[in-house]
Amino acid sequence: MRMNKPITAAAIGALAMLILPGGGIAASAGPGPHVALVGRAVLPVETYAPGPVSGQFQTGVFNGITFPLPSQPVQGFSSIVDGRRPGEYLAMPDNGYGGKATSTDFLIRAYYIRPDFKTATAERARSRSATTSPSVTRTA
Questions:
Q1: N vs C: which end of the chain shows fewer Cβ within 10 Å?
Q2: What predicted TM-score, i.e. pTM, was given to this entire model?
C-alpha cells in the first residue's frame, strides 16, 4: 500500500505540534479559569402556556404527569440566547415528546424569560407562538 506523501507529512507535522513543547495542546495544558455554579432558577414541571390540548398521542402517566395535557407544556429549554434587554433571555423549549408520531400537537415556541437566580422564581414569560397569548400558567 502506497501512502500519499503530502498527507503523511501533514499528519507528522500535526502530531509534532501536540507533542513538542510550545505547540498545540501541550502548551495550553495547565489549570484553567475557576468556574462555579452560583445560582439557578427552576421552572415547575407542570408549567403550561396557553394553547390547544397537547400530548394526545402520548396517553398514560409518565413520571407522574397524566397525558394528554390541558394545554402546551413549557418543559425544558434546548436553547437559550440573550434577550432584548439585560437580564432577559430568549429560550426555546425541547421539541416535543420524543418523536414525530407523539409530538404532532406540540407547538414549537420561543419564550422571553427573566429568571431571578437569587430566589429561583421567574417573571411572566412571553411566548413567541402565533397561536398563544403571552402568559404562562403554573400548576402544582
A1: N
A2: 0.55
